[in-house]
Each structure stands twice: as structure tokens, then as C-alpha cells.
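wait is this the right file?? whatever heres the structure
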């Protein structure tokens, strides 16, 4: 986990302060994460070290489904061009991800978006499994709390033995906040993402957090899970980890930057 956190911190720094380089970086591996709230493109070298990343807030995907195909392609192309300018090298291939349980046609739509951005898709993987690969997990469960869905992967001896996905995530918190304060969804999301408001809004969204944890407990009850790894952009919210600890009655680990964990893991599957 220490090595993973160092890599996450390094990628976070690259997002804030991109480094231009013309050095020979060798074979690059690219990950594309089409999320409900963000589109993230990550690049790692052959040793798994982050060399670049780009992120854009977007609403081109809803609950794992591409709802704005052309808009999604445009964003991935923009992020790709941005990184190519920084690294002074073309990006040619990438891995992409989908929520567990996604229908083949819906997963294919995600692959088509990446191909539409002039990238060869080398692999498709479900999101929590990608995070598990990056975190190098042998046993336990990865819970990816995204904007529209919460994905679960259970691992034994390094192998994924069970996956599931539920339609609950950050958007459902936004709905509750919008109803409570009588505001539009966009304003509710801004409220949720404002650190200064977290202590005020958390009691309002507590029932949503408890529901998420209860759903996860139902999925992992039949397995011997002693540790849950909490990833995904929504899990950044302070207090969510503590709710999961109370509901699941096991160790819950949250990486340094949960939002970037899955995107980095996807890049590890780029062959």
C-alpha cells in the first residue's frame, strides 16, 4: 500500500503541475476511465510508474452507460492530445474499464469511445478489478464507489472470485442534497465537493452512505473478507470510511487518492 500511495501522490502532482518532457520514456501504457463524474486518462511506464495524467469533469456516462458518445470521444481526444504535447510522443494504445456486470454491448460502447479517440484497445477490465491490480491485493474486497454505481470485487489468493455492481453512488448523494436544500443537481454536486461544507452535509447524506455499506455487506457476506479497500471518487468524502467500518465490522483501507486508484489500475492492463 505504501508504494501504491507514493504512485498516487506522484500522479496527483502530475495532474496539478504537468511535466513537459522529450525524454525516451520507452513503452508507455495508457488507461482510460470513463466515469459518471470524471473522465481520466493515465499513462505509466514499463515499470508501472506514472508519467502523466489528465482529468476532465464530464457527464458523458451515466451508471456505466455512455449517454453522449460523440462528447465522450471528444473529451478522450482532448486529454490524449494534452498528454502527447507534454510527453512529446504519440499515444497509440490503451486499456479501458467498465462497471462489473455491464452488458457486452455497453462495454463495447466504452471500447468504441476509446477507439474513436484513435487508440487501440488492448484490454477491457471491470473497474474494481483494475483497482485491485494496482493495489496488489491478494485477499479481501475492493469497493469502487463512483458517481453512479458501486462496484465490488472479492479476491482470494490474488484471483478475482466474485464481482458485482449496484446503481448507487455520488449522484444519489446529490439527489438527497438537492431535495434537502431545494437546489439543482449541479449545485448539490458543488456543495458535496466543497470541503468547507462536508461537516454540514454529511448528516444529510448519512442514510445513503449506510445503504451503500449495507449493499456491500450483502455481497461479501458469503466470503471470508477481513479487509475492504475503498476506492472511487465518492469515497473521498470524509466519514464514508467510518460508516463502512461500522457496517462491515472489518478493516477498511482507503488509498491516498481513491479517485485516481482505478484509472491507474486500468493502465496496468494495457498490453
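ok assuming it is, sequence goes like this
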Amino acid at each position: 500500500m505504501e508504494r501504491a500511495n507514493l504512485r498516487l501522490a506522484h500522479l496527483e502532482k502530475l495532474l496539478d503541475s504537468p511535466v513537459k518532457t522529450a525524454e525516451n520514456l520507452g513503452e508507455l501504457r495508457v488507461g482510460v476511465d470513463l466515469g459518471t463524474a470524471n473522465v481520466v486518462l493515465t499513462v505509466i511506464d514499463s515499470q508501472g510508474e506514472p508519467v502523466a495524467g489528465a482529468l476532465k469533469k464530464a457527464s458523458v456516462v451515466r451508471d456505466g452507460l455512455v449517454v453522449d458518445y460523440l462528447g465522450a470521444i471528444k473529451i478522450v481526444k482532448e486529454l490524449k492530445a494534452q498528454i502527447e504535447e507534454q510527453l512529446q510522443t504519440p499515444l497509440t494504445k490503451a486499456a479501458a474499464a467498465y462497471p462489473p456486470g455491464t452488458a457486452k454491448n455497453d462495454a463495447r460502447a466504452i471500447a468504441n469511445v476509446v477507439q474513436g479517440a484513435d487508440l487501440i484497445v488492448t484490454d477491457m477490465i471491470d473497474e474494481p478489478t483494475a483497482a485491485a491490480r494496482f493495489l496488489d491485493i491478494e485477499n479481501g474486497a475492493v469497493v469502487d464507489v463512483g458517481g453512479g454505481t458501486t462496484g465490488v470485487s472479492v479476491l482470494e489468493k490474488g484471483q478475482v472470485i466474485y464481482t458485482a455492481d449496484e446503481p448507487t453512488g455520488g449522484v444519489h448523494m446529490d439527489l438527497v442534497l438537492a431535495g434537502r436544500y431545494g437546489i439543482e443537481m449541479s449545485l448539490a454536486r458543488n456543495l458535496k465537493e466543497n470541503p468547507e461544507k462536508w461537516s454540514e452535509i454529511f448528516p444529510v447524506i448519512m442514510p445513503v452512505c449506510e445503504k451503500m455499506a449495507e449493499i456491500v455487506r450483502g455481497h461479501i457476506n458469503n466470503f471470508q473478507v477481513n479487509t475492504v479497500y475503498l476506492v472511487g471518487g465518492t469515497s473521498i468524502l470524509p466519514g464514508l470510511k467510518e460508516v463502512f467500518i461500522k457496517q462491515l465490522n472489518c478493516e477498511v483501507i482507503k488509498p491516498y487518492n481513491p479517485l485516481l486508484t482505478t484509472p491507474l489500475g486500468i493502465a496496468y492492463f494495457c498490453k
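The mean pLDDT is 91. so i think its the right one actually
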